[in-house]
Amino acid sequence: MTIRAQVGMVMNLDKCIGCHTCSVTCKQVWTDRPGAEYMWFNDVETKPGVGYPKRWEDQEQWRGGWELDRKGRLRLKAGGKLRKLLSIFANPDLPTLDDYYEPWTYDFEQLVDAPRQRHDPVARARSRITGEQLDEISWGPNWEDNLAGSPERIHHDPLTVGIEDQVKAQYEQAFMMYLPRICEHCLNPSCVASCPSGAMYKREEDGIVLVDQQKCRSWRFCVSGCPYKKVYFNHRSGKAEKCTLCYPRIEQGQPTICSETCVGRIRYLGLVLYDVDRVEAAASVPDEHDLLEAQRSVFLDPSDPLVRAQALADGVPEDWIDAAIRSPVYLLAMKYRVALPLHPEYRTLPMVWYVPPLSPIASTLETDGYEADPDEVFSAVDDPDAMRVPVDYLANLLAAGDGEVIRGVLRRLAAMRHHMRKREVLGEHDDSRPRAVGMTSQEVEDLYRLLAIAKYEDRYVIPPAHTELAGQLMEQKGTCGLDFEDGPGNCGAIERDVSGPPGYESAVDAEAFMLPGEDRVDLDIVQMLGDRRREDAEGR
Amino acid sequence: MARPKPRKGPLLGLHRHLRRGPISEEGWSQLVAKDRRWEASYRGRWSHDKVVRSTHGVNCTGSCSWKVYVKDGLVTWETQATDYPSTGPDMPEYEPRGCPRGASFSWYIYSPLRLKRPYVRGTLLALFRQQRERLGDPVEAWASIVDDPEVARAYKRERGRGGFVRASWDDAVDLIAAAHVHTIKRDGPDRVAGFSPIPAMSMASYAAGARFYSLIGGVVLSFYDWYADLPPSSPQTFGDQTDVPESGDWWNAGYLLVWGTNLPTTRTPDAHFMTEARYRGQKVVVVSPDYAEHTKFADHWLAAQPGTDGALAMAMGHVILKEFHVDRSTPYFQQYARRYTDMPLLVTLRERDGVHVPDRLLRASDLDPASEVENGDWKPVLIDERSGEPVVPNGSVGHRYGAPGEWNLRLDGVQPMLSLHEHADEQVAVDLPRFDVGDGEHGGIMRRGVPARRVGGHLVTTVLDLTLAQYGVGRPGLPGDWPTDYDDPQPHTPAWQEAITGVDRRLAARVAREFARNAERTDGRSMICMGAGTNHWFHSDQTYRTFLALVLMCGCQGVNGGGWAHYVGQEKVRPLAGLQTLAFATDWSRPPRHQSATPFFYLASEQWRYEHIRPADHASPLGRGLLDGKHVADVNALAARLGWLPSYPSFDRNPLDLVDEAQASGASVADHVVRELREGRLHFACEDPGAPGNHPKVMTIWRANLLGSSGKGHEYFLKHLLGTSESAVRAQETPPEWRPQDVRWRDEAAEGKLDLLTTIDFRMTSTAIFSDVVLPAATWYEKHDLSTTDLHPFVHTFNPAVSPAWESKTDWQAFERIATRFSELAERHLGVRRDLVVAPLGHDSPDEIAQPLGEVRDWRAGECEPIPGRTMPKLIVVERDYPAVAAKWAALGPLVEQLGTQIKGTSWDASEEVEHLRAHCGAVRGGIADGRPSLRRVEDACEAILSLSGTTNGRLSVAGFRALEKTCGVPMAHLATGSEDLRISFADAQVQPRTVMTSPEWSGIEAHGRRYSPFTINVECDKPWHTLSGRQQLYVDHSWMLELGEGLPAYRPPLRYTAIFGDQGARDGSQRKELTLQYLTPHSKWSIHSEYQDNVHMLTLFRGGGMLWISVEDAAELQIADNDWVESYNRNGVVALRATVSQRIPQGTCLMYHAKDRNVGVPLTELQGRRGGTDNSLTRIVMKPTHFIGGYAQLSFGFNYYGPTGSQRDEVTVLRKRESKVVYE
């Protein structure tokens, strides 16, 4: 057993109001700059919908994440070292600019500067990539907001595969939910494993996955290797970039920007202690339905004295262990079991988990007749299959298709509402609802406090980094999740100073990649995001 | 700013691994020691020089505290503050508060949309400079331009067509000041107007201009009614503008009906209280035609057809009345109804065609006409159940202005009888109107019955008995037609509503029953959140009254966690008394010229000339013809001459000259004016709005985008008010036989009425684009100010993170400069004058008992004598020391001590506060304001606002409650106990948001961690509501209300535009397919009105421009694919935009999120070749006659309190796919 601490996040989708404040604050702080215009470290998608980039969930197309080979061993879905080597100049699984969107701005100056003219002036759209005026804007990072254009695309959403009859673009059957997404900072990150340069690493102390901006060699295998499509390629600096889990803040004990600015108060941050040595086995269980429990089994109970002793031995600071005990992530995922991983079937053991949403009772079941008992206001809420969001749809998102997992969580949430209504609204006490879902009244009430009262200090339990160890930071350890048979090699295994596309070797110094520097690496973005076939044609 | 060059640092070359670490047990992962110094880069990005607290001044009700980050002297970004005072351990906090729009604000500061310098249209500036040079005087220069019709027309026609040139502040202000001075001199101060909305969103900035206009006698335009955010139902029912629970009180509700307000989108920072209260056991039911953000959180979605909400509410009322008031009596509901509602009050029944119709409330004066009961016409009557005798309960408006100590709701042993059913002399058939039938607006008649008695010679019944008849809840022995059960499709059963709304009858019944049962078990903790979706309709007052009836039937109002929760507009200035003192300069002179904006713009933009809906069209089939033959402009003229509503400009003569004339004639001003009016030499300006002398001439807009956002009838504004060539109006004028009787029709419609339009803003909106002068304003991160909202109890400060960029100035500085130059020019041209202010009869003053019994008496028709202040407006002379305007503007005047501060009828002495401010702000030395507290610094103005309000100064709260105790005769000062020594200073609020205190300025109790809920003071202290009866009124008995059949809450469908206007299609000879759709303009997720809709972040996060949401079915019909260009048009104008097709939209309805300005990405239209308009290109002002009523208790004028609303939601539009190429120029 080797114990490490991981900063994890839980988002309660049941509270998400779809406001996108998280996206905007993240954008302004991290990616509002040349080369990063199209990047949204945090985005929010309306589901059903194809998302950003389009159909990111379709791993048959993008080949992100892991799969089991015929021997049941874990391997990158995109293929091993050999395939990578063969395709190193023409990564076949990269999304194009069309899959993200072409960022744009407007000629606002016109409004003030327009000379005397026939009509009142107008600011026209202009591409931030080509600088050309755009006659038409045809896609954006949130094009499908609130089911916009859904009738044309609803079944392009990979989650609807197999349940098309349950998800229809009809007014009477309308439903929607929001899915805010950041990097999953996986325990078993396929992006790190995909990186030929050793530029990607998972920090030992907190599990944050980063791209070393000095070491990145622009291969972009991380972009394709990540099944969540949360690694992006900066077309100015020529480096991959991704959500950093706001480590400059996390290190100070502050929540990420997206968390602190979440006005839906849906986000939780906390530590999870886990056993590094069990990661591979957990990610390798044959049945996808077992992946959830397998990942849970990797998590360790920080209150267990043995775990505590080993953690200390493995260098986890004591105050971090204490913080892990209070961790809302651990509580929601492990104790109350209402949080679930996003697409566990990708086998990356993601560390941003979600509480699935309740939804209105479907109209066909809404009417109980005139005799409905007005004291039983939640009469249909216990039945997850009566709700508008199909259980199977949620299961495809959060449970590798296992609807029972979703039903279990929704029943616990419903039981909480029943129980608390009795206690808080009607002033009665009754343990029957908690018991029916295998919980005690106390547990239900504690869960209620965490989900409803949700004070700042309970949402975010983040111990500051021990920067007094700063001397060590110079040679701090990073974890690479790679090194297996037929893998692309361990950290830096492909250590080549091959010049990729010209200019890649230009070192980009510490902060320079954030700035529109004069010496910036100005890549041909068409090549980066555009038509792969053109690359092929040019013999790359 | 120089960009740092990438450094070739020592890290270069260190990218290789330093050493390898151990491989994990299974060999899966490996520790590798590597150089991580590069991580410093993101840490560097996160570092900043300082973090400054500020907020956003936008009409969104948010009022959120933000941390603004400054790095290298630039604002980089913002995140929400999280340090709000705690709500206590058992509920969620108010943190964080903010939304994506606010989070994108910093984009504006350095964006190319920012106004950096003053601009004037080149032709006008050249003219002005040339004439000033020639004449040597700016006022004469201005006169020479505008008094020459050819010259004036030429520069006006260029409005909006580019050609701005930079001007210096001195030149721009010189031009503005000269225009004001000239107009006052030639036409009068009531020809200059200022428009700025929503003081709560930045109080000092609002006050800056409003104070200037109030000091010069200019017209200060209202906004809350103009925006149609005012729910007229609130004055009608509560006698209060709007008072609602803070969002934290949603937490206390056990049942939440969300009805016309999309909480996650429009109350983004507060929506979490709703999502979290669900976990506490709250049930949430959403009524909405589209599947919107809030629907996601509902337990049930009731998809009522747009505008039919009143029908659903009537049916719910039917169920509640039947099950909780008739089949079974509910003690809590009964006790509440007896004491706090008008349900037990007696209503007279008038005979009509052999049956009866409800008439007015019985009064004390009816009981014994001979007796000299004080204010007997203003005291309703009920029957005491114990004695069976009529009793005049305390608390009516008659008591309010009578002997002190009786204005309270104490029953003193009386048990009000709610129904006469067991105690009737006879059972009487009554006819009641219904409006769900017929092709026009008139509806039909239904016959019901009530138990009645004879009292004081009148046949009477109770309000509750009438209500039961209205809702169709029968009882044994009553005559009339009654529904047999819920499935009987008679009004107002669940089955009846199903045919109208489409909502399943059983579901409607179930929600009603649950709502009431929850209230019964929790003593009223059932709440209805409502807003623009149900409030922006023409008949929204009726719709809202059907909602309010539900909360009154269930005893929910004045209870934490219960009642109405109306959220549209950031109307709540918590330190109201302080703001009003400063903004309206009541410290120097009273009264200000407050004007209802809706009728003002109706005349100013000549929309009245296109009127096709007559007031009588809305009349009940049981009406008496009181409105027959009138045009809406006639109703406005009547309201002006009866003192109901203000009307500026007032007369066809300069009010300064009128006073001089009176003086010369030796008569009093009032006598002179009455005589001139009577003898036909003087006319109200609103009787000839086309006359050049009656036009508003000079208008300044700040903190607002009138043209690109709120201007209903946008194209009419462009054509008539501004005289541009770009207007897209397609409408026909009013046919000759429907034209006004009392208002002059000129053959030639006036165009280009305004001589000068000035906009002060920080971004280039279309209001700025069409203005003559544009002044650059400081942004919200560049100034000091105050913000409050109804949604939370805190006072927030604005603070400058950086100095006003480029040549921008704060609104406070801008108006100081304008006032200063104005005063300089006034020395020569104006001097000291006396001004005649024609003021309407005001609410919360004795004026409101001027016109008894709700009868309309027109002195012009000889129905009464013209008596200023009773049968006509008040005529008040105010001295204007024009050269002293700037000095007064910058100092707190002496009337604060001399006359005290008045707020909603309560007054207090603030002498101590003046002393405090003199010390705090420093005293002015010399001049007219010698020794007065200085207001030159805006921080001091903020301090004055906070010092002069009871919400932020406990001493005044106690003083106010003591004063109120005398009027009411019940104890109330205890409400402020503990806060007497508390005072929130501006500096306090800069450190942290501060929680306000309970104050008589408002009706709720917010002490000791209690959440604000309105009218808790009324319920818990027996303080009357500010209505005629002192109770919450279901029944409103003014004769015009009865004329419209709206004595009681009723369902009135959306206006039948298709029937009125017929086909509004393109009629361009093409055979292209069109569809006429209901046109809804809800609030957007990607903007706050027009703010942020031009922000690249928001444009990126949706589709980069205006979109029209349509249904799958309608898209298929017109062969429109998602994102296709379409065109939407009707008689009012044309809009060019793209379509969004979605299954969340019902067939027959389209949505264009409102306040989509025409300045970003809008092409020329296919239909006319002009710039595609705004959402308001398709609307036009329509006004309801009952909103003009005045001089009658709660139906009396108050600024933003009562008046016609600028509703727009009933409109229909025609849609077709665009075929031609999209072009922009």
TrEMBL record, chain A:
Gene3D superfamilies referenced in this protein's UniProt entry, alphabetically: 3.30.70.20, nitrate reductase domain like
Q: Which cofactor does it need?
A: [4Fe-4S] cluster; [3Fe-4S] cluster
Which GO cellular component terms are attached?
A: cell envelope; membrane; nitrate reductase complex
* Main localization category: other
What GO biological process, any one, is recorded here? nitrate metabolic process
Pfam families in the record:
Fer4_11, Nitr_red_bet_C
Keyword Disulfide bond assigned: no
Residue ranges annotated for the 4Fe-4S ferredoxin-type domain, each copy included:
7-36, 174-205, 207-236
Enzyme class of the recorded protein, top EC level:
oxidoreductase
Q: Which InterPro entries match?
A: 4Fe4S_Fe-S-bd, Nitr_red_bet_C, Nitr_red_bet_C_sf, NO3_Rdtase_bsu
A single GO molecular function term of this UniProt record: metal ion binding
* Keyword Amino-acid biosynthesis found: no
Q: Which keywords accompany this UniProt record?
A: 4Fe-4S, Electron transport, Iron, Iron-sulfur, Metal-binding, Oxidoreductase, Repeat, Transport
Where does this polypeptide localize?
Answer: Cell envelope
Enzyme Commission identifier(s): 1.7.99.4
- NCBIfam families reported in the protein's UniProt record: narH
The name on file for this protein is Respiratory nitrate reductase beta chain
TrEMBL record, chain B:
GO CC list: nitrate reductase complex; plasma membrane
On the tree of life, the source organism's domain of life is: Bacteria
**Keyword terms, alphabetized:** 4Fe-4S, Cell membrane, Electron transport, Iron, Iron-sulfur, Membrane, Metal-binding, Molybdenum, Nitrate assimilation, Oxidoreductase, Transport
Record-linked Gene3D superfamilies: 3.40.50.12440, nitrate reductase tail
Using the UniProt record, name the top-level EC class of this enzyme in a single word: oxidoreductase
Which CDD domains does the record match to this protein? MopB_CT_Nitrate-R-NarG-like (cd02776), MopB_Nitrate-R-NarG-like (cd02750)
Q: What is its main location?
A: membrane
The UniProt record lists the EC number as 1.7.5.1
Does Repressor show up as a keyword for this record?
no
Q: Name all 4Fe-4S Mo/W bis-MGD-type domain ranges.
A: 49-113
Q: What is this enzyme's catalytic activity, as reactions? A: nitrate + a quinol = a quinone + nitrite + H2O
| Needed co-factor(s) | [4Fe-4S] cluster; Mo-bis(molybdopterin guanine dinucleotide)
GO terms for biological process, alphabetical: nitrate assimilation
Q: Which residues form a coiled coil?
A: none
Where is this protein localized, as stated in its record? Cell membrane
Entry membrane topology? Peripheral membrane protein
| Molecular function via GO | 4 iron, 4 sulfur cluster binding; metal ion binding; molybdopterin cofactor binding; nitrate reductase (quinone) activity
Q: Which family does it belong to?
A: Belongs to the prokaryotic molybdopterin-containing oxidoreductase family.
Name the record gives this protein: Nitrate reductase alpha subunit
